[in-house]
Structures are given as structure tokens and as C-alpha cells.
Amino acid sequence: MANNHGDFIWYELWTTEADAASDFYSDVIGWRARSAEGSDRDYRIFSIGGVDVAGLLPIPPGAKGTGMRPGWLGYVGVDDVDSAATAIAEAGGEQHLPPTDIPNVGRLAMVSDPQGVLFYVMRGAMEGTSTSFTPMKAGHCQWNELQTTDQTAALAFYTRLFGWEKGDAMPMGEMGDYQFINHHGEMIGAMMNRVADGPPPAWNFYFGVEDIDVAARAVTQKGGVIHYGPAEVPGGSFIIVGSDPQSALFGLVGPRKR
């Protein structure tokens, strides 16, 4: 069964230090990294248990001067990349990379929502179903979290374009609601208002780990920084929000075993 329109199908790290980043995430999450065949940009694939779940792309030298910074970007699967890119622009978003064919990979476009948050839309060339996003499975993304400057507008944008649905909400006091989002009967993540003095608006992705405390130690031992956690969340799991040695923000989620 192929992925549905609106599914998260891939995650990609843009970084300034490919070797260091590969080493960091391999130790923290347990991924194995390999070079992508035929890539002329040192693209690398992260896998777990023989399953490809994410990629790594060095930031091109020319892009560093434009303010491109290390960070994780998500890919949303769509039925038609060209139509989706046009609809995103008409809804107040922007195209940063027009619809482009990548041999043996698929057709994709880099876009941003009306609040300036970057992501990709993609139609893969390969048959089958992406399991990059698989809740409750270690090594895969388990939660997609948007921090935005306008939660109401962002919710309207994504639900209209990708068929997502507004779920329940968890009040967070002055920060407003933590608004859950559903897709085809599955809770896929949440949206929240950006903290005034926090990072720029962006998607943050929580990758599953076998033991949150072991992962937390690996983060600091490998030169990363933990900004929040480990903290318990509903359901009994624990989360961490951190940044890698190149300052890319990421999340981890998993059980506490001690």
C-alpha cells in the first residue's frame, strides 16, 4: 500500500559537517549511515534495521551566505508535486526549489508555509510505503511538531492542503494550546505557538530511541546540547529537545528503563 497524500515520508538533515553529524546520530539514535549511490553532493542515508528512514545533505557553500542554517526538514508525500507547489504558493506559501525530478528518487519541491517554515513536497519514484514516520518504533520518527508564529493560520493551511484534521488540544497557559493533528485516523503530531525568545519557526521531529537516558548521555558525550528533558509526556514516554554539535534542533522520544 502506497502512502497517502499528506503523509510524512522522509526526513532530511542539512548540516555543515557531514562526517560529524553522521557520527553523532549514529551514536545517539543507533542509525547506520551510508553514501547514496550516484550522489555528487555527498548525500547520505540513515537506516535502522536495514530500513532507510532519513537522509543527510551538506549545506552547499553558496547557500551558507544566504542564511541557510543546519536543521531538519520534513518531506510530505503528495499525489501531484506540481499541483501541490502551485496550491502552496496560492495559499500564501513560497516555492524555494520548483518541482524537480531526481533520478531514481522522485519529483520534489522545496516550499515554505505562510509563516516561513520550510518543508518539501514529494512524489516518490519507488513503489511501496515509506515507514520513516512510524509511531512507537525506535529509530523512526514518532512525532512531528510545528512551532509557528500563527497557529490558527498554520492549521488552516496544512489541513486544507494535505487533508490533516484538527484533533484535541492541551492547554499550555500563556503559550496557548498544544494542538494535536490527525491524518487518516492517526495522531501524527501537533502545532504550537513559537516561544517569543526561542528558535525561529520550524518543524521539529522526534525520533524514537530504545532508552531515553542512554540517548541523553550520548547527546552530551558527542557534543550536543539538551535544551529540555528528559521529561515525561502523556502515555509514559519521555522526550528530549536538543541540538547537535552543528546546532540543528532535534527531538528524541522513548522509554525510561532504569
Automatic annotation (TrEMBL):
Residue ranges occupied by any VOC domain in the UniProt entry: 7-124, 137-255
Domain of life where this protein originates: Bacteria
SUPFAM superfamilies: Glyoxalase/Bleomycin resistance protein/Dihydroxybiphenyl dioxygenase
CDD domains: SgaA_N_like
Pfam families attached to this UniProt entry: Glyoxalase (PF00903)
PANTHER family: GB|AAF24581.1 (PTHR33993:SF14), GLYOXALASE-RELATED (PTHR33993)
Protein name: Glyoxalase
